[in-house]
Inverse folding.
């Protein structure tokens, strides 16, 4: 679950939909945002994105437009913007300008061990709170004489008290028992000494939460040797950058951990380590997990908890699925790994939905030959779990009932192609004839309930689909002994030109 916060999110507008600013950023950011849009479209998330492009080479007008858009919408999903080191010192980082202009003073990341990711340490569960607006990132430096540069580290009592109060409130809201302040007060006695003193003052108001302090160099050693001892950590800006990256490495890497930047009014969500990933951009191998989890944190912030839970469970379930190869996993060599993007043979027909690559296909279940997996549909009108047939692990229920079509009318039409196993009103009193495309028997012969046969409970098309003639027309009809070099297998459940579900198996 994403960390909670006490500030109220913006209310929905425009027919119950939220508007969120999207900043794709540089490197792999644009392609990761495409995955977020695709997942939100399939899940029918009531969020509209206002896309604003900002890069390291953009002029001041672009960054001003981005700040204005975030102030208008109050919530943003952001990719990292590269900082060009060749520009003069007067050129400030675009990421830093966003954080300071919007007063996003608290950077929060949740480093937690993920299923299916083999790491040296297990059961890691750490909340890291980083002060986001001062410290060494104040961008105050000058060359006093030739060859001598002075960089100023700004620590203020007001902002130190504010971030410490946020950390203890977060620990209280999430049921945490300990807060650790990270510092270097033994050397920087005034700057870090002030920060440590503020943390002690705030800790006195939370006697039920254990408080301890630790020097930053010892902290890094303790993290790589025994990370389970930490619960909530609070620290100044630069130390937070270092500890964030160390903790991300502990749980699997930068592509797996999401982060959030909170202020009193605005919230910006991004990946935890703020990498642009330029070396792997446009190769279709970037791991979208961190960005998707960041979008789930955003949905929790908007109080769209059901959508956030569905997407988060799907991501975590896919991490534990051996049919999906992670970018750093040795399960498959790199050229054979199925990438996340809708490219090549994986591109669905225009206007039709498809299953994203990271959704799990439960192994050894049901009607697919060789135990590859199965898919199940559940009526979107029914409560979650009612009348579900199969299912994508935790994805049964209202939000993910029919993940193929993208529009609600298509979902409603597709819903009539199967019979829910719920008791129907008046079914015992009258005889119902099954559809000529249905396997269901009449209600009177089944005690007032529709009982699908065979067990997958879907209506089988009578003829080959006119939209997808290259695909099998019946569930369970699959190509046997398929060469490894052939295209991915796919099955299509269509009726009257409406796509019910399309699944691609690798």
């Amino acid at each position: 679950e994403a960390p909670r916060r006490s500030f109220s999110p913006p209310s929905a507008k425009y027919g119950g939909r939220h508007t969120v600013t999207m900043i794709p950023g540089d490197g792999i950011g644009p392609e990761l945002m495409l995955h977020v849009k695709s997942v939100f479209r399939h899940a029918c998330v009531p969020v509209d994105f206002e896309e604003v492009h900002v890069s390291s080479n953009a002029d001041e007008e672009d960054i001003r437009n981005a700040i204005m858009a975030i102030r208008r919408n109050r919530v943003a999903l952001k990719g990292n913007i590269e900082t060009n080191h060749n520009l003069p010192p007067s050129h400030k980082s675009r990421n830093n300008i966003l954080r300071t202009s919007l007063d996003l003073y608290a950077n929060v990341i949740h480093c937690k061990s993920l299923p299916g990711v083999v790491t040296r340490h297990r059961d890691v569960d750490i909340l890291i709170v980083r002060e986001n607006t001062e410290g060494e990132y104040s961008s105050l430096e000058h060359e006093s004489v030739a060859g001598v540069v002075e960089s100023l580290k700004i620590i203020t009592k007001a902002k130190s008290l504010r971030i410490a109060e946020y950390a203890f409130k977060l620990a209280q809201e999430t049921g945490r028992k300990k807060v650790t302040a990270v510092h270097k007060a033994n050397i920087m006695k005034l700057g870090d000494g002030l920060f440590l003193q503020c943390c002690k003052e705030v800790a006195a108001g939370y006697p039920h939460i254990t408080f301890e302090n630790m020097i930053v160099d010892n902290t890094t050693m303790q993290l790589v040797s025994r990370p389970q001892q930490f619960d909530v950590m609070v620290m100044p800006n630069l130390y937070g950058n270092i500890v964030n990256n160390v903790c991300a490495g502990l749980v699997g890497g930068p592509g797996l951990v999401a982060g959030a930047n909170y202020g009193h009014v605005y919230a910006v969500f991004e990946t935890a380590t703020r990498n642009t990933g330029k070396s792997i951009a446009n190769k279709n191998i970037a791991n979208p997990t961190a960005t998707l989890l960041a979008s789930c944190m955003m949905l929790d912030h908007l109080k769209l908890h059901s959508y956030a839970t569905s997407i988060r469970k799907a991501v975590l379930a896919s991490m534990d699925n051996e049919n999906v190869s992670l970018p750093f996993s040795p399960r498959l060599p790199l050229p054979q790994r199925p990438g996340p993007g809708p490219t090549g043979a994986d591109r669905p027909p225009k206007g039709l939905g498809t299953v994203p690559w990271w959704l799990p296909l439960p192994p050894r279940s049901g009607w697919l030959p060789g135990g590859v997996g199965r898919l199940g549909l559940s009526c979107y009108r029914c409560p979650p779990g009612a009348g579900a047939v199969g299912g994508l692990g935790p994805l049964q229920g209202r939000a993910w009932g029919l993940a193929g079509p993208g529009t609600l009318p298509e979902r409603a039409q597709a819903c009539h192609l199967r019979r829910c196993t719920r008791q129907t009103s008046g079914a015992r009193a009258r005889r119902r004839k099954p559809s000529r495309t249905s396997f269901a028997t009449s209600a009177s012969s089944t005690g007032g309930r529709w009982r699908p046969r065979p067990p997958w409970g879907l209506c089988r098309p009578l003829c080959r689909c006119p939209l997808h003639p290259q695909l099998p027309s019946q569930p369970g009809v699959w190509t046997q002994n398929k060469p490894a070099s052939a295209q991915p297998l796919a099955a299509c459940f269509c009726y009257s030109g409406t796509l019910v579900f399309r699944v691609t198996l690798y």
About this structure: Confidence is low (pLDDT under 50) at residues 326-506. The first strand starts at residue 18 and ends at 23.
